[in-house]
Amino acid sequence: MNQSNLLILILSSLIIFKIRRILSCENYWQSNNDGASSSRRPFDVCYRSYRDSVGGDYSYRYICNTTIVNENYTVNGYTVFKQFYNGVGCEGEPNATLLEDTLPFAIKCGGDDCDLIRYRVYTVDTTDNSTGQCSDDNYDESITELNDYQERVHVIERCDDDGFVSDSYFCSNNYFYINSYNNDKCNNDGIYAAQYYFQGCNDADEYIEIVSCGKDSGLSSSSADSGIQTWGIIFIILAIVALLCGIAFVIYHCHKSRNRFDIAA
Predict the structure, then answer these.
(1) Which residue, among 125, 173, 177, 172, has the nearest Cα to 149 in the 3D structure?
(2) Which tens digit of pLDDT belongs to each residue from 13-59?
(3) Read out DSSP for 110-170?
């Protein structure tokens, strides 16, 4: 293998590595949903938080470790555990760490973190005027201060295979949406529904607050700039590869022509 071919191979490997790094998301687990996978549940982040004025606030998260339980609960040497906390946000020390009793479909532990949407769904009791109402003049403030909520996390820009159907989540700074597909691969030609959830009162008894969006799904200038930069790097590398190929081609033919001249001499 000559030097030019070796250089091309190295640059091609860098491109593939770059693309794989962009697409990487391997720190989650999925439960077994009748032989299919469920939603990706990320490790080491607060997965659910509940502000509950009746039963008390609590939260939980998932962790993985190398404890071997049995072939039903352990995948590739990893097992899922669930940690419970008093209060919201999974703060402080857990008050319980238990084996997750749902059978896993897949466990991806220790890889790159996934991009997430974190949002809160507030309960609006239209019969209880002591809590915030969507009809209030300052409903944003009154609902977020007074009402119970459930804080949820979901992996975005990944396909959740539920067997015969699938869905994927996307988000922006003040809303998120869910695409549903009539196939198990989130192929666009099978999309049959798109549900949008905006920050605020989506109906009279539910208020949604977008806490964070890990990656704007191509809807803001910053996200678009990031995508342009990523593909710009790839195209620059491809251009360099093409230039090197051209230089190698010219050098080869010049060398070949010189050899012919020497023979004739």
Answers:
(1) 125
(2) 443 333 333 456 899 999 887 666 778 999 999 999 999 999 999 99
(3) SSPPPPEEEEEEEE--TT-TTS--TTSTTHHHHHHHHS-EEEEEEE-SS-EE-SS-EEEEE
The packing angle between helices 221-264 and 3-23, to 10°, is: 170
- What's the CA gap between 75 and 100, in Å, rounded? 13
pTM: 0.73
Which residues are paired to 119 by β-bridges?
A: 152, 210
Tell the residue number behind the tokens 């990487």, with chain if given: 24
How many CB atoms are closer than 10 A to CB 202? 15
DSSP-based three-state secondary structure for 99: strand
For residues 87, 92, 95, 98, the Cα torsion angle rounded to the nearest 10 degrees is 100
The residue type at 182: N
Of 262, 259, 138, 129, nearest to 201 by C-alpha is 138
The model's pLDDT over 162-202, given as tens digits with 9 standing for 90+, comes to 778 889 999 998 899 999 999 888 888 788 899 999 999 98
Work out the burial of residue 138: count CB atoms within 10 Å of its CB; fewer than 13 is exposed, 13-18 middle, 19 or more buried: exposed
